[in-house]
Amino acid sequence: MVKVKVEFLGGLDVIFNKERVHKVEVPQEDPVTLKDLLDYIIDNMIANKNDVPVFIENDTVRPGIITLINDTDWELEGELEYELQDGDIISFTSTLHGG
């Protein structure tokens, strides 16, 4: 099991019961990847399953959502293959705004 802090910013908190910060325990054997975290988020944290496409597209984070691992762009950390460590901070910030 891995314990991480997950932040949903830029309006994404709306699909997570308006909670921006979550302490998450992914109940899986090591190694736990960012893909495993996304699966956990989809299965356990998105209140209305109709909102999944707001966050996920083609089995990855939707374009227009900046993903940071400990304040570093996830592209530099291996994206979905990144192996989570206890205490990691994963931030998702939407740059998509309605108007």
Contiguous uncertain segments of 5+ residues: none
Order of H and E elements: EEHHEEEEE
Radius of gyration from the CA trace? 13 Å
- Indicate the multimeric state: single chain
| Tally of helical segments | 2
Strand content: 25-35%
Please tell me what the overall shape is: globular
Count of DSSP strands? 7
Based on helices, strands and strand pairing, what is the structural class? Answer: alpha+beta
Superfamily (CATH H level) name: Beta-grasp domain
Number of domains: 1
Fraction of residues in H or I helices: 10-25%
Largest sheet: 5 strands, mixed
Report what the structure shows.
By secondary structure, the chain is an alpha+beta fold. It has one domain: Beta-grasp domain (Ubiquitin-like (UB roll), Roll). It is built from 2 helices and 7 strands. The chain has helices spanning 34-44, 52-55, and strands spanning 2-9, 21-26, 56-57, 60-61, 65-69, 72-73, 89-94. The strands form 2 sheets. The protein has a 5-stranded mixed β-sheet with strand order 2-1-7-5-6, with helices on one face. Strands 3-4 form a two-stranded antiparallel sheet. It is globular. Its main location: cytoplasm. Belongs to the URM1 family.
